[in-house]
Amino acid sequence: MSSQQMAQAEPKPAEAGQFEPRIIVFCCNWCSYAGADLAGVSRLQMPTNFRVIRTMCSARVDPEFVLRAFASSADGVLVLGCHPADCHYIGGNYRTRRRIALLRVLLEQYGFNPERLKLEWVSASEGQKFQKTIKEFDAMVRDIGPNPINEE
Amino acid sequence: MTKIKLAHYWGAGCGGCDVALLDIDEKILGVAEIADIVFWPIAVDGKVKDVEAMPDKSITCTLFNGAVRNSENEHMAKLLRQKSAIVVSFGSCACYGGIPGLGNMTNRKEILDLVYTKLPTSDNVERVFPQAETHTKDGDLELPVLYDTVMTLDQVIDVDYYMPGCPPTTNLINEFLGIVTAHVKEGAPLPPKGAMIASQKTLCDECKRKKSVKKIDRIYMPHEIAIDPDKCMLEQGIICLGSSTRAGCGAKCLEGNQPCRGCMGPTAEVLDQGGSMLSALASIYRVEDNEALLSEENIATLMAQVKDPMGTFYCYTLPKSIIKRKVKERKQVKKEV
């Protein structure tokens, strides 16, 4: 492994006083995880401060998982699933988007900026969209600032 | 047979739990038969200094109801823990924070500001607030200090058993008294520490309503429609927390044709009752053929029918939820009006 690759594999340590967001990305097994994989093998450049958790379907992402991520001081949570009408389980992603829509209202009531939770559709062939989603979400979370739960 | 010693104390609660213990009718005589009531402010005369004078672990069982949200609640919880062999978290407030737990949506400063200055009936121009200590020429006065955050009993002290419910129903209290009586009279073993004196299943298991496939198009408030007393509430579009709530209460609210509001808290497998119910409710919305064409805004509008997810899903369990209390973003979002 070259030194450049090493540098890419390890998340960059935050410089003193600089905010380095921690982002959790839930990827469904059939579309989004393959999309993330494609982005990786295509060597698309993107921030490295996200952790991917693979679930069989985006509908497997229990609201509890998202709340736990925020309680464990994640600064942003991305849920990625198959495009509408493209779900491996026919209707899982429809459940997901209802839950996420309601969960965002709840997060707002908790005092969080609801933008910290985002749902996006990424198919297996959309490595570039995965890259773009991560880049944009990372920039947005940087703008919002750290998870307020750490400041309590 | 020597009698056991029983204490019943209240923290941040409404007094309903104390009354619930009296509500077991003639069985209350059985309590007097096996137990001496050593401390129960609502029913018998007793002073804190009497409790302080008792030897450690000398109270056999303390039933503590109410959440912990001020210094007096915390002091008494710790004192009773020290003096008692068994402490039972009695009622939803002690177990999950209960209705007072919704105080975690705000904080001490906001509550005091509202109550003492902003209410239409308050005329407090000098902005006088209750003080923890007041010195007068006749002596010093003390008041408990209100906390920022409402806590459950087990967030403050070690708890042996839990008995949820708002208030715990007569059958649960009787079940518990049966366990205690058998232990006192026949030496029967007590349940393992941390046991929940309630069912291990969800309320749907106890509810007698007919249940079939759930597909709803909109949500109704209970007063908006004539509720079919034999059909599942959720199938009628009424938010009922039964599917994410522990059974044991006998589905009394549903027998009275009202939806479950979740006072029994979540089952053992669930960490967050609100999250669980949110997930369930979002999943029963009908999926139409044109679903793939709907935008995220359409879905957001659809889900906005749930007016107050926090107050609906966390009515009794906010201090015991995963996030526990309201947070404050450094950067405040400007809301579009």
Characterization of the model:
The complex is a heterodimer of chains A (152) and B (337). Helix content of chain A is 41%, strand content 15%. Chain A is of the alpha/beta class and 152 residues long. Chain A has a single domain, classed as Rossmann fold, CATH 3.40.50. In chain A, α2 crosses α5. Chain A is globular. Chain B has 337 residues and is α/β, with parallel strands linked by helices. Chain B folds into three domains: 134 residues, Rossmann fold; 48 residues, no CATH class; 118 residues, no CATH class. In chain B, a hairpin with a 2-residue loop joins β6 and β7. The N and C termini of chain B lie far apart (70 Å). Chains A and B meet through α3 and α4 of A and α9, α10 and α11 of B.
CATH superfamily of the largest domain in chain B: NADH:ubiquinone oxidoreductase-like, 20kDa subunit
Q: Work out the helicity level of chain B.
A: 25-40%
The CATH architecture of the largest domain in chain B can be given as 3-Layer(aba) Sandwich
- Domain module count of chain A: 1
What percent of residues of chain B are in strands? 5-15%
Largest sheet of chain B: 5 strands, parallel
Q: Count the helices of chain A. How many?
A: 5
CATH uppermost class of chain A: Alpha Beta
CATH topology of the largest domain in chain B: Rossmann fold
End-to-end gap of chain A: 42 Å
Q: Tell me the series of helices and strands of chain B, N- to C-terminal.
A: EHHEHEEHEHHEEEEHHHHH
Radius of gyration of chain A, CA atoms, in whole angstroms? 15 Å
Which two chains touch over the largest interface? Answer: A-B, 37 and 41 residues
Based on secondary structure, the structural category of chain B is: alpha/beta
Runs of chain B in which pLDDT lies below 50 for 5 or more consecutive residues are none
Radius of gyration of chain B: 23 Å
What is the assembly state of the chains in this entry? heterodimer
What is the correct CATH architecture of chain A?
3-Layer(aba) Sandwich
Average of the residue pLDDT scores of chain B: 93
Q: What would you call the structural class of chain A? A: alpha/beta
